[in-house]
Write a structure and sequence with these properties.
about 260 residues, alpha/beta, 2 domains, 6-stranded mixed β-sheet, two-stranded antiparallel ribbon, 12 helices, 8 strands
Length: about 260
């Protein structure tokens, strides 16, 4: 093993040892990761609610799904054009198709106009293509809708956080103390109390003050232009904006965003 290899080996070994120790952030993260993986597996098995689980559905229609996927990959340009045309002419949506990150950023800021506040659901793509950075550079206030991301903002936490469970590394006591320091509200350091606080305060703002929202799209149908949004936390805003404002959707495969 080279000297660099030995150095990396010792570094990884040290991190593993730290993750095995009680009461370390690394151990807490590892425990949370195990929980998240368990929940993900359980999502595939919902026999108590449906006749077939999602895994059984995939197995049943595997050949059809593989064929549909291959057809899309081979004819992607055709389906993209078809989808955009239907969304524009049938669904009366304003659609932009950006082929580069820079083009997407420019179009987004142009459509955003004079708005200085944007409410964001989880959107990895918005980060990947630089939209979040551009918003910050232009002093646009980004208000999160996922409670974990709200907490990350509250603590002004700059380091990367767990995408599925952002803010999972904060303890209940730390959160309660931060809420008291920032909002002057004293809470018993329990998860239920913290959730109730934001539900009774921040949710009112989400339901009444949103003018512009940003969310990703899990899929878009080329047949009828339907935008499919999957969620498990109730943090997607496009459904509640209605005619009161704009809902932007960043689609992670086509690298395009849509103004509904």
């Amino acid at each position: 093993m080279s000297e660099k290899g030995k150095e990396l080996y010792e570094e990884v070994k040290q991190k593993i040892n730290t993750a095995q120790k009680e009461d370390t952030l690394e151990r807490q993260f590892a425990d949370f990761w195990k929980l998240a993986c368990t929940l993900k597996v359980r999502q595939h098995d919902m026999r108590y609610a449906y006749d077939d689980t999602s895994r059984e559905f995939v197995d049943k229609y595997r050949d059809y799904l593989v064929k549909a996927r291959d057809d899309f990959v081979e004819n992607m340009d055709h389906y993209v054009e078809k989808c955009i045309e239907i969304m524009r002419k049938v669904n009366n949506m304003k659609v932009h198709y950006a082929k580069t990150n820079e083009e997407a950023q420019g179009l987004f800021m142009e459509e955003l106009g004079a708005s200085k506040v944007i409410y964001k659901s989880k959107s990895v793509e918005a980060k990947d293509i630089g939209i979040i950075d551009v918003l910050k550079e232009n002093n646009i206030e980004i208000k999160e809708t996922d409670l974990g991301d709200v907490l990350v903002q509250l603590f002004k936490y700059e380091l990367p956080s767990f995408q599925i469970g952002p803010g999972a590394h904060f303890t209940e006591l730390e959160i309660a103390e931060k809420i008291k320091a920032v909002y002057g509200v004293e809470l018993e350091p329990k998860a239920a109390n913290i959730v109730d606080y934001f539900r009774n305060t921040y949710r009112k703002e989400l339901l009444n003050n949103v003018k512009v929202s940003l969310t990703s799209a899990n899929a878009i149908s080329a047949e009828d232009g339907t935008i499919v949004l999957g969620e498990n936390e109730g943090n997607i805003l496009s459904r509640i904006v209605g005619n009161k404002g704009k809902a932007y959707s960043v689609q992670n495969r086509l690298r395009s965003w849509f103004l509904c």
